[in-house]
Amino acid sequence: xxxxxxxxxxxxxxxxxxxxxxxxxxxxxxxxxxxxxxxxxxxxxxxxxxxxxxxxxxxxxxxxxxxxxxxxxxxxxxxxxxxxxxxxxxxxxxxxxxxxxxxxxxxxxxxxxxxxxxxxxxxxxxxxxxxxxxxxxxxxxxxxxxxxxxxxxxxxxxxxxxxxxxxxxxxxxxxxxxxxxxxxxxxxxxxxxxxxxxxxxxxxxxxxxxxxxxxxxxxxxxxxxxxxxxxxxxxxxxxxxxxxxxxxxxxxxxxxxxxxxxxxxxxxxxxxxxxxxxxxxxxxxxxxxxxxxxxxxxxxxxxxxxxxxxxxxxxxxxxxxxxxxxxxxxxxxxxxxxxxxxx
Length: 343
Fold this sequence. Notes:
Layout: E1 6-16, E2 27-38, E3 43-47, H1 54-62, E4 69-74, E5 77-78, H2 84-93, E6 94-97, H3 111-121, H4 127-140, H5 157-169, E7 175-179, H6 187-204, E8 207-211, H7 215-221, E9 224-229, E10 232-238, H8 239-244, H9 249-256, H10 297-301, E11 307-310, E12 313-315, H11 318-338
Parallel strand pairs: 3-8, 3-9, 6-7, 7-8
Antiparallel strand pairs: 1-2, 1-4, 4-5, 9-10, 10-12, 11-12
Helix pairs in contact: 3-4, 3-5, 4-5, 5-6
């Protein structure tokens, strides 16, 4: 993507597999050749089942896990081998929001100290300016001033996640990576936090990568989405195209499983079967083929490449590609037949 803020190229991450039933050389294929780009100010959702590699991708982007191969570029600079001052500056520009708002906060610290800690660590402003910044951040995320002296155990789950959001915003980052930021919260609170994130992303011009298993959330707030399956990118594209005309059978199955409250909306049955295979022994060819009801012989042996179905819409599916090629050939043939022959 031209002008991308973040660009992931061929990202691979393998973990040593442990246990009595696997060999010493066995590895978990958490990510295998993932490509992804995020533009400045864009809200991108990363979706997929548990075990698809979503959290590993988030941790690699944040620099918390070193990739096995590939590149992660931020402003065109490969950040996978940054050291010293360059790595410190990157950490200032890219901030996390974690899944569990209780586990990610120090239980001994009042929340004002938690939000102020990034400012102290980077030496930003005078002490009075830092205190003012903390107060402004708490107000921005919807926490009353009296919350500043409370500790995490005195707050609700939603309030704790608001503290985490305030701390992530303290350094005025360009990119925030939020890993399942509402999965530990009650449903009404989830909506509040998601709406807050979308509002902040829009008002502050942030780029936001949202890791989630909830496609309804992605449809509601994201600009674009990428679908991961067993460590590989199955499909990506703008929300209107991905939800309006999904190409990959896995994406189609995920879409069909979204519960909608509208009784007039007709939903086709999910075309998926079985469980996600082991990432220690992923299937050959297309990794989705053992669960796919439209798989052809080529799917079992030949791993599909991501191909374009629109200007920014790509999918890795032999069947979808063959269908598109056939439709194109038919359209060209019809055009040729209907063209008058000159004499």
